[in-house]
Structures are given as C-alpha cells and as structure tokens.
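Homework help board

Subject: predicted structure for assignment chain

Our instructor gave us this sequence and asked us to write out the predicted structure in token form, then describe one feature. I got the tokens but I'm not sure how to describe them. Can anyone check?
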Amino acid sequence: MATADGLREVIVLPAKRQPAPTVIVLHGIAISASWTSQISGFAEAARGRGFTSVYPQGIKAAWNDGREGVTSAADDVGFLRKLVHELVQRKVADPARIYITGISNGGMMALRMLCEASELFAGAGTTIANIARAHGATCQIAHPVPVVMVNGTADLLVPYNGGWVGPFGIGGNVWGTEKTAGFLARANGCATVARTESAGGGVTKTAWRDCIAPGKEVTLYRVNGGGHQIYGRRGAIASLMRSWGPNISAAEAITSAFAKEVPAPPRRRDRIGERR
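My token output:
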C-alpha cells in the first residue's frame, strides 16, 4: 500500500463473504506483520467468526504510538485512516464493523487511534499495552467504543502499574493498566464501580458496564503473574522473563467481544468512503 512514508506491506486474510466484519491487528515493536498474522491467534479467532483479519506493517517495524521515547516521525494515524478507507472502498470491510487491536507497541497505537480517530471503529482491544502518559493527558475519545484489555501483573517491559517502558526505561512512560481502563470507562460514560470476578486460570476479569453509550463496556483481563507475552500462543513467542501459565487466549477474548458487538447501520452521512 502506497503512503507518504513509502510502500507498506498489508496482509489481508479475507472472510468468505465480503464486505465482512474486519479486525485490524497491529504488531509489536521489531515484529513483522507477516509473523503476527501467523502467531498472534487472531487469524484463527477471526476466521472462526466470519471476520476478515488485516495485518499492516509499521515503518521500521514500529508504530508512532505517542510515547515520548518513540522517535518515529511516521504518520501512522494517517496511514491507518487511509487503510480503513481502502478496505471500505474495496468492499473488503463492513464500514460499521471495523475493529482495531494490537500487541505491546501495536496495542498502544490502537489506543492512540481511539484518542484521534475513534469514529472509524466499532471496538478496540489491546494486549500488554497501556496509554502513553504524554498522549493520555490530551486524549479525547469522541466516539465511545467497547474495549477489551489483556495485561499481566508481572510484565517487566510494559509495567502493569505504569511507569517507564522497556529496559532502562528507554521506551517512554505509560499510565498504569487500571488507570488506562478507568479512563476508557469514563470516556464511555460507564459506571464508576466495576464488577470483578475470577475468569479462571489465574485471570481476573473486571468490567465497567452500565455505560451511557449502551454496550460500550470496558473489560480488563488481569493476568496475575503474567509477563510480556502473547497470551494463548504457547511456543509462538518466548515469554520475556516469565513462564507460560495463565490459561487465557488474548485473541479469543478480544475477538469474541467484537463478535457480540452488532451496531446499528451508520447513518448515510457517516458512512466511510461513501459518495455524496
């Protein structure tokens, strides 16, 4: 796909029927779109629900997610806007059911897209990611969408309680996971008191419901003792500094939530890419 930053690879795994509900999956830093399509679990989770899954490639295998430690000047917000437009114009994606998710750096980019272009999406999901502190201070989510987060409490790269990211803090600073989830819940007008329950396998599920925007709840899966890993993909990527253990598939948790979301068709003037 041609962009102002040059050509970018975009892998599309289409559903049998198109236009289809579509999930855009953003890779982590130093990871390729191709590898993410093979090991993240989203290809299988999407295919099993009649979704198309799309895997775009970031410039130099990274995303400009708003952290002060990220020096990329790439216009990734503009690129993802253009990608959504192309998917709709080519009748690959149902414009009312486009979702965005990401892993680590990709998850932080997905959160940035909620701050700057939430109108494009029907839902969002993140794995091992929090809102960048520098970006969160100015974040304005104009269009509430349901969000699912999956984070580990023992993540040594993206700290659960917030702070500096990566070895020696070179990856900038992020909010804590619960602060991020609470912020998203407030943006959606959800009840301030969340409901917490065990999801089994060392995982705690917290949900902010009763939102002003119906159905736009925020759900956090807290993986107790979990590290910086793609949950549910044993052998796909080494868990950094922590062993495999918690029994949760991030791809399944996120995609199943997307599958429940059946929004009303957009009004004519709101349809992305429609001629007027």
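Reply (TA_rk): Your tokens look well-formed. For the description, you could write something like this. The CA atoms of residues 228 and 240 lie 6 Å apart. That's the kind of observation they're looking for.
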